[in-house]
Amino acid sequence: MPVAEPILSLQGLRKSYGALKVTDGVDLEIMPGELHAVIGPNGAGKTSLVHQICGTLRSDAGRILFEGADIIGLAVHQRARLGLARSFQITQIVPGFTVLDNVALAVQGRARSTFRFFRPAAGDPALEGPAMEALRVVDLAGRADLPAGLLSHGEKRSLELAIALAQSPKLLVLDEPMAGTGPEETARLIDILSRLKGRLAILLVEHDMHAVFALADRVTVLVYGRVIASGPPDAVRADAGVREAYLGDEAEAA
After folding, report:
1. Which residues span the domain enclosing 246?
2. Cα separation, 168 vs 193, whole angstroms
3. Which run of H or of E encompasses 183?
4. In terms of DSSP bridges, do strands 84-86 and 8-17 run parallel, antiparallel, or are they unpaired?
């Protein structure tokens, strides 16, 4: 059988601000259908790495291969059209719009239609069908007619995930989706992501170690912009260098 090629391959990715190296020769591969977590202490360069992958920050050196093609020179919208989506930053939630219409905006954007002439999704099968399917995936179908501003914090996180999914991504980049959520909301998001595993590739940047070790197929540890370990969760958790640099007692609690 042919060996699957990575959907995303980072090769020697570098970004510096003067003497400060925020990514320092990062190599990383994500396979189709894999949930790959990136962890590390504050200031490790995780968000800068996400910005470089998604095109909001220009790299100084290195390559970003998406399905084998170098996309390092492409703009954010060009990467999105290829199938690379970043949750929570693809579009702003419109509080006065219904939950359904927020997702329908993303469906319309996927079709490259102008938002200027946006019509409510209700009654428009081309918008309502895909939008409702994305809401079902994140367990928000029952809230479709509610103004988005009335959702809880955790539900807004789920809505942002639905907005990303509505764009039919091949790779979904999640930058700390559990941030600010309580235990019940975190458990709900873990359940949603576990059901998404295998349907598309996911890059998860997260501080919640319980979520990371419950979900990840592989884990990469970033410290001071450099990869210090990468591999299966159990191997990374047992790595002495990782425990010293970052996990410590969290490895026992996860």
Report:
1. 1-90+169-254
2. 15
3. helix 183-196
4. unpaired
Number of compact structural domains in the chain: 2
Residues 190-202, mean pLDDT to the nearest whole number: 95
Summary mean pLDDT of the chain: 89
CA distance 64 to 53: 7
Q: 243: which strand partners?
A: none
Secondary element (H or E) of residue 231: strand 226-231
pLDDT at 123: 64
| Backbone angles phi and psi of 107, in degrees to 5 | -60, -45
DSSP tag of 19:
T
140 and 174 part of one domain: no
Is the same domain home to 60 and 180?
yes
- Residue 194: the pLDDT is 96
Place of tokens 């590739």: 201
d(CA 238, CA 79): 36
pLDDT at site 91: 45
Q: What is the CATH number of the domain that holds 186?
A: 3.40.50.300
pLDDT score, position 127: 84
Q: Point out the domain boundary residue: 140, 166, 192.
A: 166
- How far is residue 214 from each of residues 186, 204, 218, measured CA to CA in Å? 12, 12, 11
Interatomic CA distance for residues 91 and 23, integer angstroms: 26
CB neighbourhood size of 2 (10 A): 4
Question: What 3-state DSSP class applies to 199?
Answer: coil
Place of tokens 């955790």: 154
117 or 105, which is more confident: 105
Identify residue 238 by its one-letter amino acid code.
Answer: A
